[in-house]
Design a protein that fits this description.
The complex is a heterodimer of chains A (about 300) and B (about 290). Chain A is mainly alpha-helical and about 300 residues long. Helices cover about 70% and strands about 0% of the residues of chain A. Chain A has 14 helices and two strands; from the N terminus they run H-H-E-E-H-H-H-H-H-H-H-H-H-H-H-H. A two-stranded antiparallel ribbon of chain A has the order 1-2. Helices cover about 70% and strands about 0% of the residues of chain B. Chain B is globular. The two termini of chain B are about 45 Å apart. The chains are: A mainly alpha (about 300), B mainly alpha (about 290). Chains A and B meet through helix 2, helix 4, helix 5, helix 6 and helix 7 of A and helix 1, helix 4, helix 5, helix 6 and helix 10 of B.
Chain lengths: ~300, ~290
């Protein structure tokens, strides 16, 4: 301890310079950790943190026994798996084609357009959904003009899974393509030149040079995303589904449930419990993922 | 030189796939813009189309007939974006500088203290209660700026970026008697241009596109940032106030659905307009810290 204070005095300017950042994380990240106590109480609106009655694990028991927790976990995990696989495969494919195709202007402009969705807000995604799928939306206009029955999207649960996955992939396509493209560009041309001389065609070269060299990046990105598989993308789900209760069964994720506990149902204890479950489970997942990366490729371990 | 058959096949597949994906990326934007230029009566009769039959500026005229809400939205969004980015960037780079210093004894412990917040959190509700009940920030502009002022990832990214600046610069300045803060301000910051540009752009994009903080904390309409105003308009929870007198002619339908589209164009326009100029900074920044975040 004495050493710490000596250091504090010796480097007081450096400590002062990092103090605002530390204070920020104490207030906005560490202080709320104390608040997980709400998960073990029956919340009282005027009692504050310790004013509510302590009820132990009752909130968790309810979430578990009612099947809510299982449904939320299943949805969150399955959506994330679909996001991760479809996004990464498409991004990888785009990067491979963009790296090899001739035509500089074509590649530059398509890459720019594919990156554009990353820059717009999720509220705009909500506007797209309205424009496309509402009763006077583009899709229903097309159905009518072809003499077909209109389809009320808001009365059916089936299409929304695909709509959500589509817009997730849509928003991240350009971003991921850039990352994979950078990994491809870092591979020396010599391999390709040598293979060309040996008479390997483009498919052979991609199969035997580009893809094997990209596999470590691919696996690493997938593993890193698996660490966050319990974290939902609240913006995406909320802007597309909103408070449409009919669709919850197949579109409710942990984050939307927690949000509704806070903003709609005012069930603070239950919502905090679901949030704590997500945090703890997510923490364990990251530890596992990090352990695996450490075994496979030590350099890329997170900590 | 004659192209190999395999190369021709590859190129065809590539051009087709990339073209389809590009069209899918662009199409929603085209639909919104064309929707905003459609006369309302056409939407009521037939619905949204790819290309409207007649061209109309009614939605924009209506939106700007009483522009106070839109101007308020722009004012709030620009204010939080500018203040949040400048203050956040300054604190991020200062923190990154301290953590990048190899002669700073507690850098690993403090790095972990910051990094740990990405691994575990108390969740949305305790965070919300802290901000509204204990910090008392409900319905203030600070509630739109403070909660996303710093991110652990950005500080770590900045730290890694500054690590690549040679130690000898700091050492020789110290020998000349310069203080730590002067070294940071006069020597390190000017050398960190690309890192600052990238992180700054990410921050301002985050502030510009934010609607979540407003959704949780803002209650009075004059405090709505642009994206939240758009959200409210789309959800028909807030009607964009217009001075369009009803029943001018039997054929005239006051813009409602098309007004939503026009609002979307007005709220997103600046981002799309600035996009070509800032895109390369993002691409560069992504490839600096790509894999490890």
């Amino acid at each position: 301890m004495k050493g710490f204070f000596q250091e504090l005095v010796r480097n007081k300017i450096l400590f002062l310079m990092i103090a605002p950042a530390l204070l920020f994380f104490v207030v906005f990240s560490y202080a709320p950790m104390v608040g997980v106590y709400y998960a073990f109480t029956r919340f009282s609106f005027d009692g504050g943190l310790f004013g509510g009655e302590f009820i132990g694990l009752k909130n968790f028991e309810f979430l578990f026994n009612s099947g809510v927790l299982w449904n939320l976990t299943k949805n969150t995990v399955l959506y994330n798996i679909a996001f991760i696989i479809i996004s990464n495969v498409l991004q990888l494919a785009c990067a491979i084609f963009l790296a090899e195709l001739p035509g500089k202007w074509f590649k530059k402009s398509t890459q720019s357009i594919m990156f554009l969705p990353f820059f717009v807000s999720f509220v705009l995604v909500g506007a797209f959904v309205f424009n496309l799928f509402s009763n006077s939306g583009v899709i229903n206009t097309m159905l009518t003009s072809m003499g077909l029955q209109t389809y009320d999207f808001y009365m059916h649960t089936a299409p929304w899974k695909y709509i959500i996955v589509f817009f997730h992939v849509w928003k991240g396509l350009g971003y991921g393509t850039v990352i994979y493209l950078a990994a491809i560009m870092s591979v020396s041309d010599e391999y390709h030149e040598a293979a060309k001389i040996d008479g390997a065609n483009i498919f052979k070269r991609i199969q035997h040079i580009t893809i094997p060299l990209l596999i470590p990046t691919f696996i690493l990105l997938i593993l890193l995303s698996l660490g966050g598989i319990l974290k939902g993308q609240f913006d995406l789900f909320y802007q597309i589904i909103g408070n449409n209760g009919m669709l919850y069964n197949s579109t409710d994720i942990i984050d939307t449930y927690v949000y509704r506990s806070l903003a709609v149902n005012f069930d603070i204890g239950m919502g905090t419990a679901a949030g704590l479950y997500q945090s703890l489970f997510g923490f364990v997942l990251i530890l596992v993922v990090n352990y695996i990366i450490r075994k496979v490729q030590k350099d890329y371990a997170l900590f | 030189m004659k192209m190999e058959k395999a190369t021709v096949v590859f190129n065809i597949i590539g051009y087709v796939l990339i073209t389809i994906l590009t069209v899918l990326c662009l199409l929603p934007f085209v639909l919104i813009v064309s929707g905003s230029f459609t006369p309302e009566i056409e939407i009521v009769k037939a619905g949204f189309k790819l290309i409207p039959e007649t061209f109309s500026l009614d939605a924009y005229k209506a939106a700007f007939s009483n522009p106070k809400q839109i101007f308020d939205g722009y004012r709030v969004t620009i204010m939080i974006t500018v203040i949040g980015t400048i203050v956040g960037l300054f604190l991020t780079s200062m923190g990154g500088f301290v953590l990048s210093r190899k002669d700073f004894k507690y850098r690993d412990q403090l790095s972990f203290f910051i990094y740990f917040t990405t691994l575990f959190s108390g969740g949305l509700i305790p965070w919300y209660i802290l901000i509204t009940k204990h910090l008392d920030l409900k319905d203030t502009y600070l509630a739109l700026i403070l909660p996303s002022l710093l991110s652990a990832w950005n500080i770590i990214l900045m730290k890694n970026f500054m690590k690549s600046i040679p130690d000898s610069i700091v050492e020789s300045a110290k020998i000349d008697g310069a203080g730590e803060f002067t070294i940071f301000l006069k020597l390190i910051l000017p050398l960190s241009g690309p890192g600052l540009a990238t992180i700054g752009l990410f921050m301002s994009l985050g502030y510009w596109n934010d609607w979540f903080l407003a959704n949780l904390f803002i209650t009075s309409e004059s405090h709505y940032p642009l994206q939240f105003l758009l959200y409210k308009i789309l959800a028909s929870a807030a009607v964009l106030k217009t001075n369009v007198a009803g029943n001018l002619s039997p054929d005239f339908q006051p813009p409602a659905e098309t007004l939503k589209m026009a609002a979307a164009v007005i709220a997103t326009g600046p981002i799309v307009f600035l996009y070509p100029f800032v895109q390369r900074f993002f691409v560069k920044g992504l490839t600096i810290g790509a894999v490890k975040g």
